[in-house]
Design brief:
With about 300 residues, this protein is mainly α. The chain is built from twelve helices and four strands, in the order E-H-H-H-H-E-H-E-H-H-H-H-H-H-H-E. Strands 1-3 form a two-stranded parallel ribbon. A two-stranded antiparallel ribbon has the order 2-4. The structure holds fe (ii) ion (FE2) (2 copies).
């Protein structure tokens, strides 16, 4: 990836793609299709124990950089940290720019990944959206695909990788063992706070996922940027696309409402495009731009608050 802004040094991942590459190994099967969908369901008859064993194996074989990334993420994402970041960013008082400008802004992010095999951030967004477009998905969903990772601009404002990406998890309640590398939570200060260490913690059962403070990152941020402009299904995709412990493992489901559970189908549908449509073929940005500028205009104002 090219340009003039580098990620803060001393970050464990050479590229944020390393985290996503790990996810693909950890969750090798595409998410099951929603009712009436055509996607392949996970194999039946796979014993839960075996699955657990396999996951442990993936973790054991993970690159040291990925392990270190999760160690930092699980150590530092506390309930108070999340509240502080929400306060810091969700007033959306930093910048005003169009969606396309935000895509170009994000694209300044460069890292040490291999330029021959990795796509730029902008190319990943276009590739996700194009895969949806090819499948005849609704326009709002294609647009959701286009914007879904724009929250990674947090990196350009000095946030470390562990506060931008990573599978999100609930803070303010007991850490679920269904998270990857659960052993790293032992170093999280919240592990010593009894208020946060009951199954429901500071929440009530069935309170709704929107009441739960998920670990801070690019999902919650982009959800807030877009919340006045996209339909609810798209907003669920944005807000929970990294919430793998919930949408792939069923963790924290005691907080979900019936609506959250119904909307999960959209999150899973989104996930198949985000994670499994990556190819090394770079989309033609100049050729695609007019189509996407039109699509952006249909839903967003000329300038959006970031
Ligand atoms: Fe993402
Ligand atoms: Fe993505």
């Amino acid at each position: 990836m090219k340009s003039n802004v580098t990620e803060t040094s001393q970050q464990p991942l050479a590229s944020m793609d390393e985290w996503e590459d790990f996810l693909k190994v950890r969750y090798p099967e595409p998410a099951p299709a929603p009712a009436g969908g055509t996607r392949r369901a996970p194999p039946v008859g796979v014993a839960a124990d075996k699955k657990k064993e396999e996951f442990r194996q993936y973790e054991a074989e993970a690159r040291p950089s990925v392990r270190e990334f999760y160690r930092l993420n699980h150590t530092h994402q506390t309930y108070d940290f999340v509240q502080a970041k929400r306060k810091e960013y969700l007033g959306l008082n930093r910048m005003q720019m169009s969606v396309w400008e935000a895509m170009e802004y994000l694209n300044q992010l460069i890292d040490d990944s291999d330029p021959d095999t990795d796509l730029s951030q902008l190319q990943h967004l276009l590739q996700t959206a194009e895969a949806m477009r090819r499948d005849g998905q609704p326009r709002w969903m294609i647009l959701t695909g286009l914007v879904h990772d724009l929250g990674k601009i947090l990196c350009l404002w000095g946030e470390p990788q562990w506060a931008v990406v990573g599978d999100t998890f609930a803070t303010g309640c007991a850490f679920s063992p269904k998270n990857v590398f659960p052993e790293f939570f032992a170093a999280n200060p919240d592990a010593n706070n009894p208020r946060f260490q009951t199954p429901n913690g500071v929440y009530e059962e069935g309170c709704g996922l929107d009441k739960v403070a998920l670990s801070w990152g690019h999902d919650e941020y982009i959800y807030n940027v877009c919340k006045d402009y996209l339909p609810e299904e798209g907003l669920y995709m944005l807000r929970y696309h990294s919430f793998y412990p919930w949408h792939r493992e069923g963790a924290y489901d005691q907080f979900a409402t019936a609506k959250d559970r119904a909307m999960k189908e959209w999150v899973l549908k989104f996930n198949t495009y985000d994670l499994y449509t990556k190819s090394h073929e770079a989309p033609d940005v100049a050729k695609l731009r007019p189509y996407y500028e039109d699509l952006i205009r249909e839903f967003f104002p000329a300038k959006v608050r970031w």
